[in-house]
Specification:
Blueprint: E1 6-12, H1 16-28, E2 32-40, H2 46-56, E3 60-65, H3 71-80, E4 86-90, E5 94-95, H4 100-109, E6 115-122, H5 139-147, E7 165-167, E8 175-179, H6 180-185, H7 198-208, E9 212-223, H8 233-251, H9 258-282
Parallel strand pairs: 1-2, 1-4, 2-3, 6-9
Antiparallel strand pairs: 4-8, 5-9, 6-8, 7-9
Helix pairs in contact: 1-2, 5-9, 8-9
Length: 283
Amino acid sequence: MSAPGIAAIVVTHESLATIDDCLERLRRAEGVAQVRVVDNDSRDGTLALVQRHAAADARLRFIGNPDNPGFSVGCNQGARDSDAPWLAFVNPDCMVEPDALARLLAHAQGQAQEVLLGADLVDEAGVRDGAARRRQPDFGRMLREAFAGRGRRPLDLPADDTQTLQPVDAVSGALMLISRALFERIGGFDEGYRLHAEDLDLCRRAREAGALVAVANDVRVVHVRGVSSRARPLFVEWHKHRGLWRYFRKFEGRQSGPAKRAAVAVAIGARLLASLAAKLAGR
């Protein structure tokens, strides 16, 4: 028999700075029946701290990967190791309030259709995270804007506080709630992504399966952001742009001619080089 409620899935990598607070909060969170931590080869003491939480709470189990197979792989591992009917994917730098996940679940259960929900993510100063609400990438528009000499249009969408549940193309993978039934029906996370764009991919497949993808504007969660990636910014930038290329090939590549495929590849490559140069200059 499956456990009632929510299985919270946390994928860690060098997350020592925030994982203790994250797990303390998840263990106190209403509606959380299981916590699964998948550690991707942390060397900073993260796993030892996770083990202490597991020893103190039978709901918490962990998987220690001997290497780093990526965020998507870790999420799928955690989902398979749990059996609660709802899955909450929570980054180790997200700090949930005691009722946050339960309120997301109440919103989800109140809908007539299947849903994938995100929360109103804010930083420690209360500034909203633009990545919480996004449109799907439009590579044709990206090329038109580049050739016209205009700056690229961000994927971020403004918050609309007149809507409790604001429909969007995609929510942030930092925190998302989805039923196990929908997650399994659409095949879980695409493990071809190593880091970044896997959330855009999952949200798109959920929408194509008829689900509502939305942000609960009345559920606020602090997202410290980037704790695991700060030590390897160049690695992160490489996989962010690799993820965009995979996303394009998967959803638009077959319908695009050779000229468009080549142009998108050049545009993504140029964007990567500019990002790497900015990171190196920042150092």
